[in-house]
Structures are given as C-alpha cells and as structure tokens.
Specification:
The protein is about 50% helix and about 10% strand. The protein is an alpha/beta fold and about 325 residues long. α2 packs parallel to α4 and α7 runs parallel beside α8.
C-alpha cells in the first residue's frame, strides 16, 4: 500500500522509530490505517528531499502540515514558470539512463515535462524502430554510452535521421579527444555522464533550448603513487581471469536510488563508482580491439579496471547489508 521495500520500512522502524506497529503473537507486525497514512507521508516527503531522521519524531499532524507546505511552495513555483504545456519528446538509448529519468529528483522543476516515447539498448535498434513507425519527429535523442568511439558516428547519424530528432545529446563515461571532437563537429551535445540527479537535471534543462528551437548548445565536460600489475596480482586484487560483471547498469542505477535515508549517500556513491569503473573496463577492451598497436597497454588497463570492479562489487554487498538493502 505504501509502495516501499520491507527492508526500508524495517530500518525506519528500528533505527528511527518512525513507526511503531503492534505485534501479533506470531511475530508479525500489525499496521493500523493511521500507521499506513504515516508511512505514506514519510515516503512522499523523503522522496521530495526531506531526511527521514528529521521527520521521524513528528506526529501525524505535523507531517501533514509539512506535506501541505511543500505542496503549496511547489504550486507557487510552478505558477511563476512560463506556460509551456507541450512535453519534450525524448528517445533514450540506454536502459540505465531511462531509469534515471523516472526519478522525481530529476523530473522536478524542469521547464517542460519529459515524455519518453522510446527506450532502446542500441542506436541501431532505435533507427530500425523509427523506420517502421509513422510517429512524429522527436525533440531529443539521448544516448548513454560507457565508451565513445569515432566508429559510432554513422549509427548515431542514422538514428538521428530516422527519428528526425531536433537535438542529439550524448552522455558518455570515457572518450578520447578524437571521438569528442568528431561528435561535437556533428552538432551533438556532449557531456561526461552527470553522476548526481541534480547535475543530470541541470544538463537536461540546458538541452531544452536546442530541443525546442534551432539554438546552438555548446558541449561541456562535467565531470599518486603508481602500482604495477604484478604487485596487484601478488595482493590478489587482480585474478588471472577476471569474472564478468555481477551487476549491470540498470541494477546499479536502481540500487543507487534505494537508500532509505537522504543523509547516507554511500549506496549511491558506491553504485556510481562501480558504473564508472565498469564503463572504463569496457572502454579499455574496446580500445584494445580497435587499436592493435596499443593492445597490450589497453589489455593491462582492462585487467586493472576489472580488479577494481571486483573490489567495489564486494564493497557494494557490504553497504547493502549495512543499509538493510537487497541486491539481486
């Protein structure tokens, strides 16, 4: 009824005493209608940015007042915005980015509402689907990629033409100067993938003029002692054969947004670091395959990144246990 994980509810009860249900003889918790209303209000307010620790001690009347005040402030802010009701039609290539665009922290206070009209894994899939459709042109083609290569230009152009996209934006994790220059020359808007929701929302807001009007938006990038590979092997940090990823970007994106408290952002930080490391691992592998002369160096970088990924996967498990969260 509250639409929240059991693990989060348990933490709110045990760590913050935010809700105090009765307990049956069988050990099951018994929630009254008042308990349910309280939990629903707490969930709504934490999703709007309030810390559970600050809300847990408030009674139901105070929680209602906070919710009403927040609603009135949001309504007042919206009333001052220009009246532009048409949504921004977006096609997203990249499942993890599509999940991020569903978060309230990304969507609120945007100048225009977002309407995701298509989600694809590959640029070629988007181009093929568009070729079979009679839908209207889209405002924005948003492509999320771990590694940016010059060879992706034809696929990106084909997808843009098929979708009749007014604006093309690319969120990448790793890219060489050559690839960045080549894509910037096509008019695409480039950015190192914004890590936080606030940064992503700001980037989306900056894309709006180019997606709605024929306006130019410039690209931007947001975003010790050395250790040789043999010592890393000796410490057991890099196995001779690095196992495949345990968590894909979609799983990590969902986990990053599942922390039961706003104050503790460790789940989000570790998941985002793990996505960055996994992206660099894949990027190094792609570079090794595309540049035979540098194959040995990139193979080395791939192994180092793989070893780091294993460490952070283990760290993610530990954070999940500490926060009472569930990993697949």
């Amino acid at each position: 009824m509250a639409g929240m994980p059991v693990s989060t509810l348990r933490i709110w009860e045990q760590r913050y005493q935010a809700v105090k249900p009765l307990t049956a003889r069988s050990g099951h918790r018994l929630y009254s209608s008042a308990d349910v209303e309280r939990v629903v209000l707490l969930r709504q307010l934490t999703e709007l940015g309030h810390a559970i620790g600050a809300l847990a001690g408030l009674d139901i009347d105070h929680l209602r007042k906070v919710a009403i005040t927040h609603s009135n402030n949001e309504a007042q802010a919206r009333s001052k915005l220009p009246r532009r009701k048409e949504p921004l039609r977006i096609v997203v290539v990249g499942q993890a980015m599509a999940r991020r665009l569903q978060r309230p922290t990304v969507l609120r206070r945007l100048g225009r509402p977002l309407q995701v009209v298509g989600i694809f894994n590959l640029l070629a899939e988007a181009a093929h689907a568009a070729a079979l459709s009679t839908d209207a042109a889209v405002d924005l083609l948003l492509w999320q990629t771990s590694g940016l290569q010059v060879g992706a230009l034809p696929e990106l152009k084909a997808a843009q033409d098929a979708l009749r996209a007014r604006c093309v934006a690319v969120a990448y994790r790793f890219a060489g100067a050559g690839a960045r220059d080549a894509l910037a020359g096509t008019g695409a808007v480039l950015a190192r993938e914004p890590a936080g929701d606030d940064a992503l929302r700001a980037w989306l807001a900056s894309l709006e003029p180019a997606a709605v009007e024929d306006t130019d938006v410039r690209s931007y990038a947001g975003g010790s002692a050395s250790t040789n590979v043999w010592s890393l092997h000796a410490m057991g940090l890099i196995p001779s054969t690095v196992p495949a990823r345990r968590f894909d970007d979609v799983t990590l994106t969902e986990f990053a947004g599942s922390s039961p408290t706003v104050a503790c952002e460790c789940p989000s930080h570790v998941a985002e670091l793990l996505m960055q490391i996994s992206g660099f691992e894949a990027y190094s592998k792609d570079c090794a395959e595309r540049s035979p002369a540098d194959a040995e160096l990139h193979a080395y970088l791939q192994r180092v990144a793989g070893g780091a990924r294993l460490l952070f996967e283990a760290a993610l498990e530990r954070v999940a246990v500490a926060e009472g969260l569930t990993l697949p």
